[in-house]
Amino acid sequence: MVNTITLKALRPELPAVIRDIDIKLDRYIVTKRGRPVAVMMGVDDYEGVMETMEILSDKALMKRIKKAQRQIEEGKTVSLEELRKKLENV
Question: Whose CB among 17, 38, 46, 76 lies 3.0–4.6 Å from 30's, allowing a Cys bridge?
Fold first, then answer.
């Protein structure tokens, strides 16, 4: 869940905000004078966002992902058993 909190309100509520981020996986947008100035989120959440950005910025990888999606839509898939047999021969 994304919450908005003012910087002034954040100060006394910081322990509760950190708990919500850690336990409930909440995210907070911190505002100052009505403008967003910071985002607070858990480390795992942050690392996931960064990894997603890295994947999306890799043109070759995105091309392979789109190709794989097309193959799935066309039914060009391999069963788990077929995959196991192929891997045994490697």
Answer: 38
Question: Are the beta carbons of 31 and 6 closer than 8 angstroms?
Answer: yes
pTM for this entry = 0.68
List the domain range (segments joined by +) for residue 58.
2-88
Using DSSP, state whether 53 is helix, strand or coil.
Answer: helix
Q: How many CB atoms lie within 10 A of CB 87?
A: 8
Q: So what's the pLDDT on residue 90?
A: 77
Average pLDDT, rounded, for the chain: 95
Number of domains making up the chain: 1
